[in-house]
């Protein structure tokens, strides 16, 4: 296990500021990226450097099967490459800066979002573009994909989230409730609940009563369970939240 284990890391180290650290799903390797474009792979147990290469390093993600890496330099392009031999599978592009990425749980697809207000779905093994999702009216800031490809959900600076049909590429549901830019979204393992957060200061509001809104949306009811404001579940939806969840920290 990585937790609680301290290792003496071997040379050579990074020459630039480290921007990200990612642990592979099997807990055997660590991928680190720095501001000078260096990406290094380390053996988690020993600290031995397994791989070092130069390339896009500002946004890095690894597929759950630990075979492929997505990396971007914060511009309109990214690379999909194999972790074993640094072979570039495909160059991924948007019309504007790529802002977010997520990987499917089976590692077959990756989804990217962009400043160009679109999302693109790519086949990881081939780099083939399979879908373009268009519907947001602002920068796409976050994205999550449901297991078994039930849907994709994305958040945007237009203060909304969209649930997309992966078969048709159409917007299945538009979710309102945030008053500021949506900054993050996550799904529960069964994809029945989505949790999203916002940037409460984008419009200069610093009132503690409206700062840092978190929305919880149930896919079964397709409505907002909690607005998160004033640290309380809204009374009209309180009966929809199980008592044990309220007692566990949703007061």
TrEMBL record:
Gene3D superfamilies, A to Z: YVTN repeat-like/Quinoprotein amine dehydrogenase
Keywords on record: Repeat, WD repeat
Keyword Repeat: yes
Pfam families in alphabetical order: WD40 (PF00400)
Repeat among keywords: yes
Chain spans, region Disordered: 224-251
Protein name: Vegetative incompatibility protein HET-E-1-like
